[in-house]
Amino acid sequence: MSAIAFAAISLLGIVFLQTYDIEEDDISSVNVEDIKPSKHDLVPKRGGDVTGCQLITTFNFHFLFWAYIFCAGLQLTFQTNITAYLKSYNMEKQYSTLFTTLNPIFGVVSKFIAGFMSDMLVHKVPRMAVLFGFNILQTIVLVICIFFSNELSVLVIALVGISMPNGALWCLTPTMLSEFYGMKYFGRNWGMIMFGNAFGGLIMQRVFGWIYDSSIGFTGQTVCHGLHCYTWSFIMMAVLSACSCLFNAAILESELNLYKLTAKERRMGQPAVDK
User: Fold this and answer.
1) pLDDT attached to residue 228
2) How far apart are CA 248 and CA 63, in angstroms?
3) Which domains are delineated in the chain?
4) Cα separation, 156 vs 85, whole angstroms
């Protein structure tokens, strides 16, 4: 199903995606004096298209990059092992279909919530504030899972508390990347993050598997039962999520400072540009 969907969507993109140029006559016909200031004028203007060495020497890019790698990796680890959690806690037969169905549903719902919320609030607060809120929720949920993940109610909370930040992450990270560093090199910049995500997700999955196998305790047995099977893997994910929150907070602080500068410059009649 995924292979067919990817192929179909890619073909549609080849056929329909184009660059549409604005006619110069349309631009010249607009009277600049008739353009009224918008609330979105409070959104900081960026310094242009950035990639390569200039990009990788930027602190905010590294904060965005590593926060994404950590969150995407731990979220993938949780989502691909939902049935393993259920099997270890003897819940697989009753809830396997329900959990694997709700997981993508919550992800899709959160994309709409995060996308619309960030668009509505972007003139007041940076988009990072929305993602930061989702990641704080995720961190709290993962800490709870360290001690109580064998409870059905906690697993449900974890499903919501990890699937929804996952949707927000995939919705907002490319959006912020394009806003911070321009669209000219977006493919290259986003590809760099996706390349890192491939290795980060693989490493976390391998570590999760090693922890799981080490917790079995009996030679020849392949299934681990009990809370202890996932204690250390949840600790690992909680720490990574907390680190992501710190990176998010660093970007948020710099963005808030830029918003304040933009508001000040607007009052003085001069645009602020992020250099």
Assistant:
1) 93
2) 7
3) 47-255 (1.20.1250.20)
4) 12
Q: Which SS3 state, helix, strand or coil, does residue 144 take?
A: helix
The values of phi and psi at residue 79, to 5°, are -65, -40
H/E/C letters for each residue in 107-133?
Answer: HHHHHHHHHHHHHHHCCCCCHHHHHHH
Yes or no: say if 108 and 132 are a contact pair by the CB < 8 Å rule.
Answer: no
H or E element, residue 273:
strand 273-274
DSSP states of 42-64: GSPEE-----HHHHHT-HHHHHH
Q: What is the pLDDT of residue 260?
A: 87
Asked if the model's pLDDT at residue 103 lies above 60, the reply is: yes
- 213 neighbors 201 (Cβ within 8 angstroms): no
Residue in the block written with tokens 């009649």? 269
User: What is the pTM assigned to this prediction?
Assistant: 0.83
Chain position carrying tokens 């140029």: 21
d(CA 142, CA 157): 10
